[in-house]
Structures are given as structure tokens and as C-alpha cells.
What we know:
By secondary structure, the protein is an alpha/beta fold.
Amino acid sequence: MGKKNDRLNRLIGILKIRGAVSIRELAQTLEVSEMTIRRDMKLLQQNKVVENVDGVMVYNPAHTLVETDKEYSLALEEERRNAEKAAIGAFAASLVAQDDMIIIDTGTTTVHIARNLPTNLHLSVLCYNINILMELRRKPNIQPLFAGGYYHANAQMFESKEGVEFISGIRVQKAFVSAAGVHCQLGVTCINNYEIETKRAILRSSLEKILVADSSKFGRVCAAYCCDMNDIDTIITNKDLSPEWIDQIRSKGIKLYLV
């Protein structure tokens, strides 16, 4: 592995753990010049691995990484189903209508919803994930609302009691909810306990609860319980979902979209 490839791997590792780091601090940590870091960051920005926000590099866990030069090749676990997540997110965004107020949950699938929201629609969008907020700020007709609090770098999420109260005081047409696991008996689950109160708040605040999850999540159970499947109105997933799961979802009266 060449020096550049090794350095890029180290940069991504640091950003994955910390979420956001200044160029100066990265240069000091890797003991290279700021100019070297800027060149590396330019490559990572081209592949949407990071975004430069006033000199601070913010990691994007939903990035699609492609090989841009002969020295650089990196495969991360989170990219394995990125094509499915992108398709799910694009379809979910197509369900949004003019003047809707919506909530977009944290996650590597939900960021694709923000990325694909039509630029010609006037919308209000509540979120609490830094990557989703970065996508929304590029769209002039969207009014973002942000529920802040303590920052969790591994999920790029902000959460707090005050953030939950803020969400609880708002009513929206649609909430797009992510999940790490979906099970008929044990319900919708996620990995991090700190996500639970926020997820439950957005479910209480929304008219339509839309679960977005790729087919690998079905049949999986994680430790943090969010809600029962019967609390979900609509599910959007990819076409690899098994016939057994399709039957179970439809038998519960849940609207199902396979994309």
C-alpha cells in the first residue's frame, strides 16, 4: 500500500470516529502539511466521502466511493448496499408533495431522501442529522428545521431532551424512519439506544409513518426497540425482499413499495 493510500485510509478512519475535524488538526495528527491534507480532501470531496464546511471536514457515512486514481481503492462495509439505499431514497423523495412538512430520520438510507428532494417544491423539513442538513441547505425552496443537542459522531446525529420536546410540538404529513432491524414479532429496532426517544417522537408527530430500509434489515433484530411493525403505515425497500416477507407485510395492512 502506498503512502497516499495509507494516509487516505487513516483520514477516513479519523473522520468516521470523530465526525468532523479541521484541516489544521488533521495535518497535525498525520504530521503532514495542510496543503497535503487539502489535496487529499479534494479527492475525498469528489467522491462525497467528506464535505468542507468552513475549513472543517465533515464525514458523510452515506457516500458512494469510486476509484478515482490508480493508487486509491477502498471498500467500506457501509457501501455494500449503497445502490439499493440510493434507489429507496429517490423513490421516497418522489412521495413528497408541494407544501408538505416532513421529518427525515438519521441514517445512511434517509440521507438519499434529502439528496433527491425536488428542487421545485416548497417544503419544510425537520431533521437532526448533520449530513441531511448539509443536503437540505443546497435546496433554496426548502425550509430546514433542526432539532439539536448532544452530537453522536458515529451516527452523525444530534439528540437531547429539548430536541425531543421540539419534535413533539410539531405535526407533519410524513415521517421517513430508518431501522437497523425489522422483525414481525420483535418490531422495528436500531443499534443505538440514544436514537429511541427521538424516533418515537417523530412517529407520534406524523400523519404517515414511512419506513425506509434495504432488504438486509428484514428478519434482523437489534438491541434498541423503536416500535411495532403495526405502527408503520408504509414500507419502502428493494426488490430483493423475500416472498415470505412481502406476504407478512401485506397481511398486516402495510403499504409496500419495492424499488
